[in-house]
Amino acid sequence: MSETYLVFAEHRGGKLRQVTLEALQAAAVAADDGGVRIAAVLIGHNAGALAEALAGYPVSDIHVIEDASLEHYNPEAYLHALAELCGAVRPVAVFLGHTALGRDLAPALAARLKAGQLSDVIAVERSGDETVFTRPLYAGKAFEKKVFRGTPWIVTVRPNNIPPAAVGGLATANVAKHDYTAPSSLRTIVKDVVRQTSGKVDLTEAKIVVSGGRGVKSSDGFKPLEELAELLGGAVGASRGACDAGYCDYALQIGQTGKVVTPEIYIACGISGAIQHLAGMSQSRIIIAINKDPEAPIFKVADYGIVGDLFEVVPLLTEEFRKA
Ligand code: FAD
């Protein structure tokens, strides 16, 4: 019987998250056309409706675990559902996005399955008979390459690093629905999730991030940044300095204790560039820093630096982009 790699198909608001396609691609590279079956699992209320969204991608089997009680992410319930499926399917590898959910679920699943785990993978390659995973260390100052010894193993992939899987190549996937009964041992039940952020673009998946630091000076100071982000189809982020000062919500915080982002373009406005902030954004493709202090450490990691007052520079950029 062929081996199976299982991809946790994360979704939100009735849509697959982009990182699901990136995890699929990671699985496809690791499988290396070596007769490995790639399966995906959709968990949630009405999750089966998303099976169609996976059509055409390199997936042989789509497992659907659907129940009203799974509408919101509940670590215990999702772990139970996923572990039961793993018991039935016996995947040798499980791929998840390195999202808030994936970061929570993967280690719990690894403990349950007694699996090896690698988090925050940014590249997957085949070398001889081995699959080699790369992950950043020390805020991107170093990278380690790792291989697994033994199975099963679990990988989380950092959003926006591995190119998404492309449609094509495979016949229609088999869709298998699985019953779900909440275990009586559940200690928590999620009644509702109240969203606080109003951003249209998910920060961790945004191609462009415009971030503000303590230099924005107030919550109103974020307005020019929001305007620029909206014009560019990007998302707004922040340093912890800005969050601590109460200028914005902690949901926007980027860094060691916040979100990790890897956009095509990261525009840091009034952010000094502390190591803890760099931990969350230093892998961005292009970093543009706007800071009035020419000695600010952010310029050391920036591809382009503008020494100036953000309240002059950001509106000028917006004006120019609007003309383009
Ligand atoms: P500051 O360091 O105060 O920098 C403000 C910058 O704005 C300055 O460089 C200044 O020159 C510039 N400026 C001021 N006015 C203007 C203007 N008008 N125009 C242009 N530039 C201007 N930080 C994070 O960001 N994310 C984290 O996840 C995080 N986790 C942490 C975890 C731990 C355990 C610890 C100890 C710290 C953590 N921090 C984190 C905090 C971090 O050390 C810094 O304190 C924080 O990043 C500083 O935020 P800042 O750059 O906005 O503020």
SS class: alpha/beta
CA radius of gyration:
21 Å
Q: Outline, from the CA principal axes?
A: globular
The SSE string, one letter per element, is EEEHEEHEHEEEEEEEHEHEHEHEH
User: What is the mean pLDDT?
Assistant: 94
Number of strands: 17
What oligomerization state is this entry in?
single chain
Strand content: 25-35%
What is the helix tally?
Answer: 8
What's the main sheet like?
A: 7 strands, parallel
Ligand inventory: flavin-adenine dinucleotide
**What share of the residues lie within helices?**
10-25%
Strand order of the largest sheet: 7-11-6-1-4-5-12
* Uncertain ranges: none
For the record, give the distance between the C-alpha atoms at the N and C termini, rounded to a whole number. Answer: 56 Å
What does this structure look like?
Its cofactor is FAD. Belongs to the ETF alpha-subunit/FixB family. Keywords: Electron transport, FAD, Flavoprotein, Transport. The protein is an alpha/beta fold. It has 8 helices and 17 strands. The protein has a 7-stranded parallel beta sheet with strand order 7-11-6-1-4-5-12, sandwiched between helices. A 5-stranded parallel beta sheet has the order 14-13-15-16-17. It has a 3-stranded antiparallel beta sheet with strand order 8-9-10, with helices on one face. Strand 15, helix 6 (275-278) and strand 16 (286-291) form a beta-alpha-beta unit. The radius of gyration is 21 Å and the shape is globular. The mean pLDDT is 94. Flavin-adenine dinucleotide binds next to helix 5, helix 6, strand 16 and helix 8.
